[in-house]
Task: structure prediction
Amino acid sequence: MAPVKPADEIVYADYQSSKPVDPRVVEAMLPYFGGTFGNAASLHAVGDDATAALEDARAAVARFFGAQPQEIVFTSGATEANNLAIIGYAQRNRRKGDHVIITEAEHISVLNIAKYLEKNGFRVTHAPIDLYGRVSPKKLRARITDETILVSVGWASNEIGTVQPIAEIAEMLAGTGVALHTDAVAAEGLVPIDMSAVPVSLMSLSANDIYGPRGLGALYVRKGVQVAPVLLGGGQERGLRSGTEDLASIAGMAAAAGIMAAEMPAEVARITAIRNRLVERVLAEIPDAHLNGATLKPPGGRLPNNAHFRFDGVEGEAMVLSLRDEGVAVATGSACSSKTLEPSHTLISCGLLHEEAHGSLEFTFGRFSKDDDVDRIMAVLPGVIARLRALSPLYKVKTPA
Amino acid sequence: MKSTQYSEKTLEHFRNPRNVGTLEGPNVAVGRVGNPVCGDLMDIYIDVEDDRIKDIKFQTFGCGSAVATSSMITELVVGMQLDEALKVGRGDVADALDGLPPIKMHCSNLAADALHEAIKNWRAGIKPAEAIATPVEKSCHPRPAEVVEVEIANLDDYKSKGVYTRVDDQTALAGQRVVVLDTGDRAAQLAIDLTDHTGRVVLMTTGKEPSVSSAVRSALRLSDVKLLTEAQPLELKGEGELERIRVHALNEDEEYELTADALVVLE
Result:
């Protein structure tokens, strides 16, 4: 049996999947388990304390995203926020039309919600992406009809890290009566998000993606945008999301937003440097390695923490397993590691062949990534690729004939 | 259960696969199964003496399970009579590995099939080179080596909307996903030149190899052009402009869609 590395010796390069909760956030959450434990809906003093804490937290989260406090609806996570945004908006505004547009770079939660809408009488169109994973506003516009009520474009791809031209799309849709929803989970804390500057109607957020607790998210609902609730009950969160608010987690998200607001510029610069060094070294030191998604050089448009590669002749799950043995935690878009056994739809839509999509490997860095992570990755990655290529009937070394 | 929750034995075979490689000689046969499109491709070589598997090797592109099952079957059947080896099935391989995750039982447990294919090829006198060139799923479609006339039903609908019959200004294709149809050396050279302007150039050919001279073939091999062989374009799709090409995979007799911004069909 290969030795299993203790958690603190693992190079964690899968921040896209999950992030550790910042210890300062945990500290901020603790008072809400025993001390301020009230229900914000209760009328007594214990409840009043909870109400005050809840509204303070709502204001802090709103401030970080350039929103008004009443525009923030807390949910159990970004998946629920996506459900509320897309299903809630489509159902509430059905009399205006039955057509919804999403893109081919969306997270699986949006794709499956769109399928649900189709089963329930809506029509869904997918807007294409280019070689770099970018949605073309022009091609998006060409798909809008009189029946279109909602367009959903992720702020950035959770997979290949391509940042979408959200401001441009929002400007294009402003005044047309078509609402824009964006799943901003992959982008939050990595690129500036300001609702006072970008006319987005609905935006899904997750607490964990700014190093807050898992199990909490929020939906930004711009003032005046009509949404029907998908979870019914006591009418909390302005009737849009019933269920007693999880005050500890909400306080955690607020603390996470405050820390991020103060530290984001320096943190992004540091993460970008780590990511850039990995990309440079992989492309220079491993033959037949390719970067998927946007280039690092201008025009760019890539999340600062994301490096997504493909390696000719090697399958992704085999790479992830081998790197697991070497103490490196990464993700792949290969079919063989997914529940559906389909390779990443985003990579296929970028124009890759199935066999290329199977050979993908995704590194994402974050707040606790160390400067020597790249050295530790590069101490093992070339060997892993070489070993698997030696097994592979597909890999032929490129040498002059 | 996660698809990667493998038994310790499976992981051990993945980490230290036995009998990796190829075999040569007059008594060697090979069986190839799988399809890189699905993420698995497996070659099993057997060296036969007195109707017995004297030596066995494998090469596999695939996930952990694909590698481990290949390795395990080589251990299970080395030294066996061919008839006996034919009785070793997928279930035996999975059992010998202390089981496989349910989702992998069908997709990545092809080693027994590859072995059976190798034995069948040995008995039919099919040489390794031929066996590897012949797809497992027999295709009823001809695979001509020479350039075929391109017959894309709606090619004209996309003229000047993504379809090019000549490329005067290569910079106009910067950043685009370009598919060049293999119409000989000139097309292949254009494909190579275009890699200076865009990161994605596919040379699509109906043959097993592009129909080019040996000099251009070496240049292609060293270039960043992605070769797509045994592929026949059928139809173009897109709202107003070219967005996708419906392709017939001749070796699989399957159809799929390839995303592309530009299709070059030189006149």
